[in-house]
Amino acid sequence: MRPPIKRIALSTGGGDAPGLNAVIRAATLAARNRDWDVVGIRDGYNGLLFPDEYPDGGLIELTRDSVRGIIHQGGTIIGTTNRGNPTAYPMRQPDGTWKEVDRTQELLARFDEHGIDALITIGGDGSLTIGRHLHEAGLRLVGVPKTIDNDLEKTTSTFGFDTAVDFASECIDRLFSTATSHGRVIVVEVMGRYAGWIALNAGMASGAHAILIPEIPFDLEHVAALITHREQHGAKFSIICVAEGAVPAGGELSIVGRAVGQAERLGGVGAKVANQLEAITGRETRTVVLGHLLRGGSPTSFDRLLGLRFGAAAVRALDEGHTGVMVALNPPTVDYIPLEEAISRQKTVPLDCDSIATARDLGINFGDEPPRHSAIGR
Ligand code: F6P
Question: How far is CA 151 from CA 135, 159, 192, in A?
């Protein structure tokens, strides 16, 4: 039988996502309403692993005052990192090389020293995998799913995704007027890692003419034929929305690089697609990479609400005695899913989903078939 909870910690890990501060606020208020103390660990787990590097010792007391007025703010008030995996922490060795060191026991000792009874870890698949490991090592813990990529399997949605899609759609709207005025082709590259959710949803919502996603390997001859077909029918401009993880049939993923202790960084496919399309069609083609802009800004009301619901549900889960679970949206409710199930598989776009069928009905080209005659679009 575990002792009752008196003090919990919150940690945000991996890339930030609009809605994180709503989670922090809801979890803090729900915990304070149970007379629990709440601390935020700075920058993932770095606040506990490197307390000397922080003027406040790496922990922020979270009170009603400190979480006031943050629901609409992007980012995370406690900071995050995608380099702080405590189970394989990159440490520089005396000879200048890097070695990954397992710092789990050291971290658990710090939780004890600070009298922290439980952790709410807010993050994507990487942070939730670390969470599962810490849970197995004995930490009482609940996960909150976060990613703009929407690629977590056991939750209908993650906060940050709606904001990213909304902003990408607005950007594509803006690109339409300049593309139309100049009679240009514009290729827009969006984030999403190995899933095409952002490209698919933003591309459809804004009327892009072709959408290239990781789930459907593309052949640019089809996209070029679409551009030419549109031109022959009086539309001299085209908008192509490309997911950063889109791959040419028989080709390779575009990788920018990989820093020590980080996942591979994707990027560059937009420029490659633009160059090749220009070469094939002879039409002036430009590239816009939306990149981290999709992670910034104020969360949409959908993401704020989801963040609030997840934050409060995580506290309820702890209060009800759950550990090793992730809160998950399963409309109309929020469920608790075992962490091992939550991280077992990545959620990619199913090829038989109605969005793909709808896009094809609208004449949107995925680079896997010749353009349909309806493909004039907006
Ligand atoms: O997972 C969220 C995400 O924004 C991906 O879409 C993108 O590939 C990656 O993070 C970028 O990470 P970083 O902030 O390290 O560049």
Answer: 22, 11, 8
